[in-house]
Amino acid sequence: MRKSSLHTLVLYARYTDKLSYYDDWQYAFETHPDLCARSVNICDGKNLRSVKRSIGDYDLIVLLHSVNADTLVFIEPYRSILKDRKGKLLSFVGNEVNLPRISMKSKIDFIKDVSADFIGTQLPLEAGRWLYVECRGSSVVALPHALNPKAFGPIIPNGERTIDIGARSHQYWSCLGDNERNDLYGFFAKYPFIPSLKMDIDTKSRFDRSGWSVFLNQCRGTISNEAGSYYLERDDATVRKIQAFAESQQKEKGSKIVKPDSLPERLWRFVPSQLKEVVKAPLSRFLKSLNVSYYSDIYEQLDFNETFERFFKDIPRCPVYSKAISSRHFDAIGTKTCQIMLEGRYNEILKADEHFIALKHDFSNITEVMIRFLDSTCHQVMVDRAYEYIMDQHTYRHRVDAVRDLM
C-alpha cells in the first residue's frame, strides 16, 4: 500500500468554536496530500449509520481531541463500530489533566476498550507513556500542538501594533492544584510598569480562531505558561475527593447542581458562543435565585489556597514532568507576537531566551524581562527567529507527516 493512498476517517465533535486547534488539526488532515481524508462530526446523529457502513474502508481512523476532551457522550455510540475497524486507530486525548467534568480514567478505559493502535499525547513523551501505561496494546506517540500558518500569520508589523501586552485565558480551577497561570495574569494586571504599558488581559472572555488571530496581531507581546498540572493522576483520586467535598458543601446549603452531561448541560453546549456571552450572566443569576448552581461555577469559586492546603499539600507531584506546550504558544509565534513566559520545558521545543523571554516563577527578574521586551531590536530578532524555526519544523503539516509515517 502506497502512503499516498491512505484512506483516512477523521472523527471530531463540533459543539464549540472557541478552541482553534480543533479546526487546525482537522484542516491539516483534510489537506495533507498523502491522505484521502473524510471528516465526520459525531455530534450529528445522522452520521452514525454512514460510519458504521464504511468503517472497514479506512486505512486510518483518527479521533481528534474534541471527541473526548469534555465528554464521551458523543463518541460512545461509535464504541462498537471502532472495534469492528480494519484500519489503524489513532486516538488523540483532549485535556490531559484531572477534571471533575470528565475523568482521565474514563478516557483511558475507552481507549483500552477500543484497542487504539496509537495514542497521540500533547504531553512530553515520558509523561504520555506514564499516563497510558495500562493501554498495553497501544503505542504512545508525541503529537503536541503546532502552527497553522494559514490561520495565524504576521499581518500587522510589530511597530504598528496598538497593544503592548494582551492575553486571554479562562481562570484555572483550583482542583488542578496549579495556580501559575492565574498568578501570572494577576501579576501583569497589577504591576506598576514604568513606562506604563497598554494592557488587554482578560480571563472572562475568549475568541474564536479568526478573532484570536486578529487580537494577537494587535499585540506586541503576550504572556503565558505551560498548560496542564504538576499533579496529574491516572486514577483521578484527588479530584474525586475535591468533587465529593464541593458537592457536600452544596448539599449543606440545600443547593442543587447542574451536573456534566445532564440534559440542561447538553443543551447549553449547542448554544452559539456569542449568545452564551449575552445570556450567561442573567442565566447564572436566575439559577442562583432558584438555589441552583452550575457545576463549573462551583469549581471556579473554590479558593486556591484552601483547596491546595486541604488536598494537595501532602501528596507528591506526578512522578514525571506533566506540563506541556500548548496551541497558544504556536499561535503567538505565527503572528510574531513576542512571548513572555514562565520558565518551563515546553516539550523541549521552545528554548528560553531564544524563542521566548523567560520569566522566573517568583517574577524576580521582571525588570530584566521588560528591558529585553522593550528593546525593539531584541524583540524583532526573537520573534523572527521563533517564526522561522517553527515554520521549518513545527507546523500541523509536520505533525500529520509524523502520523503518516506511523503507517
Structure description:
The protein is an alpha/beta fold. The protein folds into three domains: 3-143, 3-Layer(aba) Sandwich (Rossmann fold); 158-231 and 319-393, 3-Layer(aba) Sandwich (Rossmann fold); 237-312, no CATH class. Helices cover 39% and strands 16% of the residues. The strands form four sheets. It has a six-stranded parallel sheet with strand order 2-1-3-4-5-6. A five-stranded parallel sheet has the order 8-7-9-14-15, with helices on both faces. It is globular. The mean pLDDT is 93.
Chart the SSEs and their pairings.
Blueprint: E1 6-12, H1 20-31, E2 35-41, H2 47-54, E3 60-63, H3 79-83, E4 88-92, H4 104-113, E5 118-121, H5 125-131, E6 139-142, E7 163-168, H6 180-190, E8 199-202, H7 209-216, E9 219-224, E10 227-228, H8 237-252, E11 256-258, H9 263-269, H10 273-289, E12 292-294, H11 295-300, H12 304-312, E13 323-324, H13 327-334, E14 338-342, E15 357-359, H14 366-374, H15 376-393, H16 396-404
Parallel strand pairs: 1-2, 1-3, 3-4, 4-5, 5-6, 7-8, 7-9, 9-14, 11-12, 14-15
Antiparallel strand pairs: 10-13
